[in-house]
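Hey, can you fold this one?
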Amino acid sequence: MNKTMKKLLFLSLLAVSIAACSRRSDGGDTRLKSAADSVAYVIGMNVGLNLQRMDSTLNVAALCEGIRDVFREKTRFTTDEAEAFYLRYMNYTLPEEARAYEERFLADIADRNRSYARTKSGVTYSVEQIGDQERIPASERDSVLLRLRILRADGEPLYSSYDRGDTLRRMLGDLKPGVQEALRLIGEEGRITAWVPAEKAYGAAGEASMGIAPNSTLCFEIELVRLDKYAEWNRRRK
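Sure. Predicted structure:
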């Protein structure tokens, strides 16, 4: 059995445990007649809690039906068909739905607040302070010194160099594409608030270490503290 089908089976087993527990909640017999029953109950509790954390929106009845059909040997999909459907949903249908929602979300921001504009890539931004227009990042080899905050779409903070009392020095080309695009809209000492589509931020992978879920639309509050242009540095070196 491949990893995809193992995951599907694992989720189904979790759902069966929850369904079994929920059926007992209507006043039925909940007595545990042996130590083995008690162990089974504890396992059911644990998998139920895990399923809640993983995805509380799963259709438990449909998952249970899949398990029952396996034991009846009357499944609605073959194993290959089930895997193909699952992969198609995860890799195409779900991302497309996320992109459609993201597009509506970003369009609403621009419509509600006239200070926001949008680039062709979907970066939706408001320049808070324009900065020195003679010193705008251009080359991917330009070095930028930044302060920034990253927030989720619901306003939950994910990272703040201000809270850390720190600044970040990066080559422009090492930053996420949406952040690069935002920085090219301001000069040195400028500030910008930019809503960045997932595709131009952390994408379908997300960043678990920062609490960034896959396909997340993020808000970046960026201050360009200093710009060291590669062309100037290269001339001095010569």
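Confidence is low (pLDDT under 50) at residues 21-28. Let me know if you want another pass with a different chain boundary.
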